[in-house]
Write a structure and sequence with these properties.
Blueprint (H helix, E strand, L loop, with lengths): L1 E4 L19 E5 L5 E5 L5 E3 L2 E3 L1 E4 L4 E4 L3 E4 H5 L13 H7 L5 H5 L2 E3 L1 H38 L2 H5 L1 H19 L7 H14 L16 H7 L9 E3 L2
Parallel strand pairs: 9-10
Antiparallel strand pairs: 1-2, 2-3, 3-6, 4-5, 4-7, 7-8
Bound molecules: zinc ion.
């Protein structure tokens, strides 16, 4: 079952706070009694103080919608929360007393990493483009160099024609270095690398640690979670 939370949501308790979006987030009630919350608003959704995109949530988790509105999930969807303090001393007994909540699984936050596919693809396709462009420039330079070297001896055989060919080669050579730009300067390349490094980070806003995997394929295949904050990566 899905419940849309917001000023125009389908949740039990009406929300009138104008800072809350009309459709602010979505709560999915799973068959096994667990809850998943997903942010739908540009002003953000927090669970127990952490910005989330999509995560499992407990009935007594504190949900903050936008900058000011805050309540528990239980109040929001009108379900009785099991009596529990914010820091359960004995998680095992809590779990046993309430089949509806599963605190152990709710502790692990999940973050969508699918936006990193685009980050990687953009960076990689530009890398390939630049390499191809540079290859073409190098080909022209080498070709003109060889042409000039071959033209020089013809001066001895053809006189003025040889001079003309050599002159043409030299001018071409000068142009190929002075007139033709490299695909990107070292500075431009570094700038692009920095932008990629800034985006290639753990999607958990509390963490933001650099991702170890060198590309998106490796990230999906080998790194299903963050080694620093232990959050779980999911691909939507
Ligand atoms: Zn992390």
């Amino acid at each position: 079952m899905e419940i849309i939370i917001g000023r125009h949501g389908t949740q039990k308790t009406p929300i009138t706070d104008p800072t809350v979006s009309r459709q602010h987030c979505k709560v999915t009630v799973n068959g096994d009694g667990t809850y998943v919350i997903e942010n739908l608003s540009s002003s953000g959704t927090k669970v127990d103080g952490l910005d989330i995109i999509r995560t499992t949530v407990r009935l007594n988790s504190r949900i903050q919608l936008g900058p000011s509105f805050s309540t528990t999930l239980a109040e929001l969807i009108g379900v009785h929360a099991p009596s529990q303090t914010s820091a359960p001393k004995n998680p095992a007994s809590t779990e046993a007393s309430s089949g509806a909540t599963k605190p152990r699984t709710a502790e692990v936050k999940t973050f969508d990493i699918s936006h990193l596919r685009q980050v990687w693809e953009d960076f990689n396709s530009t890398n390939l483009e630049m390499a191809e462009e540079q290859r073409k420039t190098n080909l022209v330079r080498t070709g003109l160099g060889i042409f000039t070297m071959c033209a020089m001896p013809t001066i001895f055989f053809f006189g003025p024609v040889g001079y003309a060919l050599t002159g043409l080669g030299v001018i071409g050579n000068i142009y190929s270095f002075a007139g033709m730009r490299n695909a990107e300067t070292a500075e431009e390349r570094q700038c692009r690398q920095d932008a990629f490094d800034d985006a290639w980070v753990c999607p958990n806003p509390e963490c933001g640690h650099s991702i170890i995997a060198k590309n998106y394929k490796m990230l999906v295949r080998n790194h299903q979670s963050c080694p620093y904050c232990k959050c779980k990566y999911i691909e939507k």
